[in-house]
Design a protein that fits this description.
Bound molecules: zinc ion
Low-confidence stretches: 5-11
Mean pLDDT: 95
Number of domains: 2
Oligomer: single chain
CATH architecture of the largest domain: 3-Layer(aba) Sandwich
């Protein structure tokens, strides 16, 4: 049965020593992002961790740590109350709100200078670690400027000389044999002194002193449920922090992103989402352990936006079945992406039932399987909520009958994400924090005096989104 640690939720007035621990200026900045994590995921991640791993999560524990700063974040974009990863990360990385789908570019085309470029110029070491392609929206928001986030092939050259440690997926944007225009970006990075590594063994054998480009997958790093043999987010983070501890005499800034939490939410796949949330929490643990040994380190953990607002619902009479339903998540073997491949093209209801039983340990009804099959075969109007009127949306709804967890749609949502931080300089991240407040705080901590141009929503309204 789910129960929180003793004292969880207890609150008391802060002592002056506790307030002092949050003030001051850090030398090192660790900025962690659980991409697309609706606040409800904190509890479900904690619950899964306790029943599947017999321990709680580091993030939930931070919520009960009086020396940590606890807040929520207003992450709206310049043209929408619902933000995407690129405009959200750009607001952190430049201090200016922009349109969704752009990376550090104002609606009139003005280029904004990203925080890692400024940090590098100020003599700091810089790093990006992610389970997405390294050129994806969230890392790009800290290290690049590009009119369209999807132009990842144009983002790929921008980290050279600007970001010392770049680890994640995305070989397809760097390796000449698989890059569309055959350009040898990996070779360019190597010429600039980067070690280019593609496996966990190569990463572990790399020299920590030289810059590193680590590309562990063609596209995104696989879901935790489908794990390949590449390094985990915690392993990439641990390697990079070790390197930074030895090399960053003048301090560093690193962004660590658990990217696939967002992708799983888009698929309405709660099992994949929560296992990736726990992998993210393990990486957060690596960061918190580092900070415990290096007290001049600020650690922030947050999300860039909600996604599809999953919730564990009251199931059965007096909700007594909710826990039992949720516990079925533990038995899952693979993500919806793998299920989709196993369904094959034009799947029958029988095939879908068989795959779900084998991969998820759940026997859905023939009627439910026919709904998923109809949607997988291109039928529209299978479900009333148009946002979920496609195969994974229908599958997610069917499985909500068994897991007890339902989603509101398959797109980002407007909740205030959590922002939790610890160490010197964490105090300003308490309460309701506007996403544009991150940049001036972090640049001030690094001794950088710089302000990017910005636009009001009124000034921006005459421009069209790309
Ligand atoms: Zn997303």
């Amino acid at each position: 049965m789910f129960s929180l640690p003793l004292g969880f939720g207890g609150s008391a007035a802060l002592s002056s020593a506790q307030v002092r621990a949050k003030g001051g200026q850090p030398k090192n900045i660790i900025f962690c992002v659980s991409d697309g994590m609706s606040p409800s995921v904190l509890m479900m991640g904690e619950y899964l961790s306790q029943i599947a791993r017999g321990k709680g999560t580091r993030w939930a524990a931070m919520m009960n740590d009086m020396t940590a700063s606890r807040g929520i974040q207003d992450v709206a974009a310049l043209n929408s109350p619902v933000t995407d990863s690129s405009s959200s990360s750009s607001a952190w990385g430049s201090g200016s709100r922009i349109f969704n789908a752009a990376v550090n570019i104002l609606p009139d085309g003005t280029k904004l200078t990203p925080i890692l470029q400024l940090a590098k110029q100020a003599g700091k070491k810089t790093a990006l670690v992610t389970t997405a392609t390294v050129t994806h929206a969230t890392p790009a928001g800290f290290g690049a400027s590009q009119a369209k986030r999807d132009d990842e092939h144009l983002i790929a050259p921008q980290y050279k000389g600007r970001v010392d440690y770049v680890l994640g997926g995305g070989q397809r944007f760097f390796l000449p044999e698989i890059r569309k225009d055959k350009m040898d970006l990996a070779g360019d990075y190597a010429k600039a002194g980067y070690q280019v590594v593609k496996t966990k063994a190569e990463m572990l054998a790399a020299k920590k002193a030289a810059p590193i480009l680590g590309l562990f997958a063609d596209s995104h790093v696989p879901y935790t449920m489908d794990r390949g043999d590449g390094p985990t987010l915690a392993e990439m983070t641990s390697f990079t922090l070790d390197a930074l501890a030895g090399e960053a005499k003048n301090g560093f800034i690193i962004q660590v992103e658990g990217a696939r939490i967002d992708h799983a939410a888009h698929n309405n796949d709660i099992a994949s989402q929560l296992w990736d949330q726990l992998a993210y929490d393990d990486a957060l643990g690596v960061c918190l352990d580092f900070a415990a040994k290096h007290s001049d380190t600020l650690v922030i953990t947050t999300s860039d936006h909600g996604n599809s607002s999953p919730g564990l619902n009251g199931m059965g009479l007096e909700y007594v079945d909710s826990g039992k339903c949720f516990e079925r998540i533990v038995k899952g073997k693979s993500s919806f992406d793998v299920l989709g491949r196993l369904f094959g093209t034009k799947p029958s209801g029988a095939r879908i039932r068989e795959v779900i039983e084998a991969q998820r340990g759940i026997v859905i009804t023939p009627d439910e399987a026919e709904l998923v099959a109809a949607s997988a075969n291109g039928k529209k109007g299978v479900v009333i909520n148009k946002l979920q009127d496609r195969a994974f949306g229908v599958l997610g709804q069917v499985l909500s009958n068994y897991y007890g967890v339902a989603y509101t749609g398959m797109t980002h949502t407007s909740e205030y994400p959590l922002i939790t931080s610890t160490g010197p300089g964490s105090l300003p991240f308490e309460g309701l924090v506007r996403n544009t407040e991150v940049f001036p705080r972090l640049t001030k901590y690094m001794g950088i005096d710089f302000k990017n141009p910005s636009m009001t929503p009124e000034q921006a309204s005459k421009f069209k989104a790309v």
